[in-house]
Amino acid sequence: MSMKPPLFFRGPNGDWDVSVFRDESHAVAYCEAIDVVNGEYGEYGWDASGLLVKLIVEPRSRGVLSFLAPEGKVRVHWLKEEAARPDELRRVLLRFLSHRAEHRGSDAPSLEPVSLESLVAVMWRHLTP
Q1: What is the pTM of this model?
Q2: Which residues touch 76 (CB under 8 Å, ≥6 apart)?
Q3: Which pLDDT belongs to residue 104?
Q4: What is the chain's pLDDT, residue by residue, as a tens digit (129 residues)?
Q5: Distance between CA 19 and CA 117 in Å, rounded?
Q6: Running DSSP on this structure, what letter comes out for residue 40?
Q7: 55 closest CA partner among 91, 18, 7, 6
Q8: Which of 80, 84, 79, 90 has its CA nearest to residue 117?
Q9: Alpha helices in the chain (DSSP H)
Q10: What is the CA radius of gyration of the chain?
Q11: What is the pLDDT, as a whole number, of residue 98?
């Protein structure tokens, strides 16, 4: 079994603070080590099926150019020992989308009966260019 994109991370500011990455390489390229260390992407995240993933920072070796990225290199680590949490991801996405609709002043239709797969598709459409 492997990670199923996209990847979701809930930030420290609550349910309205959700980052979506199209895949592992996108997350690694976008996230800065200092932000990962400071908890800007939460304790863990989810892949599209609810498997738990975590952003980690691997220390860089002390070479001549280590001053360019002193914190280390960001990696996505799959938390294989943890059970998948699709219901938790679904709740987070529902709250995010509800908050977003309220913030925009629109009446969003109830998404409660919508499947996790459909919520992932909605998030992907709304949050990617």
Answers
A1: 0.84
A2: 3, 7, 24, 27, 28, 53, 54, 55, 56
A3: 63
A4: 688 999 999 999 987 899 999 999 999 999 999 999 999 999 999 999 999 999 999 987 666 555 555 578 999 999 999 999 999 999 999 999 888 777 666 555 566 788 999 999 988 887 664
A5: 17
A6: T
A7: 7
A8: 90
A9: 24-30, 33-37, 86-103, 116-127
A10: 16
A11: 85
Domain boundaries, the chain: 7-127
Instruction: State the CB neighbour count (10 A cutoff) for residue 10.
Output: 23
DSSP state of 66: G
Say if residues 27 and 40 touch (Cβ distance below 8 Å): no
> Are 42 and 11 a contacting pair, CB within 8 Å?
yes
Q: Which of 33, 73, 34, 36 is nearest to 54 (CA)?
A: 36
φ/ψ of 123, rounded to 5, equals -60, -40
